[in-house]
Amino acid sequence: MDIIFLQGVRARTLIGCYDWERVAPQVVELDLEIALPSTRACHTDNLNDTINYDQLVTHLRKELEAQHFLLLEALADHIAKVIREQFCAPWTRVSVIKPGILHEVTRVGVTVERGQRS
Ligand SMILES: Nc1nc2c(c(=O)[nH]1)N=C([C@H](O)[C@@H](O)CO)CN2
């Protein structure tokens, strides 16, 4: 299986359980692993035969600006759904990190894995 990965993708979204988090968007960081539906692009060397990670990042940033979630779990699940349904990925692992949210914690976030790794 071939995988595209993206690390430290920054995006803005309204996220959080507490009142102070409901007033303005925060920056979240995404680490993404995305299985490709086929190995076709390896042979054709054609961008149309793979998932265009440039388009994916642009799409996700727009999506996150429009969506409002309370929990990182719900946000990560939504991102995985978009990747699978709109970019035809059979499997994905999505981590969403809230930089600097907890005192004396380097990184906190949630990882979800959806679909089948074949
Ligand atoms: N498992 C989770 N725990 C917490 C979340 C979350 O999304 N998932 N969120 C919060 C707050 O919004 C936090 O980020 C602010 O301190 C607390 N716990």
From TrEMBL:
Keywords: Folate biosynthesis, Lyase. InterPro entries: Dihydroneopterin_aldolase, FolB_dom, GTP-CH-I_C/QueF. Gene3D superfamilies: 3.30.1130.10. The keyword Cytoplasm does not apply. It catalyses: 7,8-dihydroneopterin = 6-hydroxymethyl-7,8-dihydropterin + glycolaldehyde. It is an enzyme of class 4 (lyase). The keyword Lyase applies. Belongs to the DHNA family. NCBIfam families: folB_dom. PANTHER family: DIHYDRONEOPTERIN ALDOLASE 1-RELATED. This is dihydroneopterin aldolase. It comes from Chitiniphilus purpureus.
